[in-house]
Design a protein that fits this description.
Order of helices and strands: HHHHH
Strand content: under 5%
Number of helices: 5
Structural class: mainly alpha
Shape: flat
Distance between the termini: 50 Å
Radius of gyration: 22 Å
Number of domains: 2
Helix content: over 70%
Length: 112
């Protein structure tokens, strides 16, 4: 047996699977259990910032990495993020910003 790969018995795997199932179920059930509670307005404002924050986290590394390596801001990634930022400032729906900036990125990647 390889020392890197742990050797689990069937009972250990069953416990791991049950633990993952419980965590998944609880995470999905909490919104339904709390649906009858009214949250304050500030909570909704914070929760509305989660999708852009997740997208920024996903986009940050691919955007920063080529700039650091090439020492230039004229990269397709950086330009596409700038377009998405400008679209975000206009107040358009988040999906439009993603679609337009991805189109800009793909076109620039093809021709740069």
């Amino acid at each position: 047996m390889n020392a890197i790969v742990p050797h689990y018995q069937w009972f250990d795997l069953l416990i791991i699977l049950l633990g993952m199932a419980i965590v998944t179920y609880v995470a999905r059930a909490i919104p339904f259990l709390l649906a009858h509670f009214r949250l304050p307005r500030w909570t909704h404002e914070i929760l509305n910032q989660i999708p852009p924050s997740v997208m920024a986290g996903l986009v940050a590394i691919p955007v920063i990495e080529p700039t650091i390596v090439n020492h230039s801001i004229w990269q397709p990634e950086v330009i596409a993020v700038a377009v998405a930022f400008i679209i975000g400032l206009t107040g358009l729906h988040f999906l439009w910003g993603v679609l337009i900036s991805m189109t800009v990125y793909l076109v620039l990647r093809q021709y740069m």
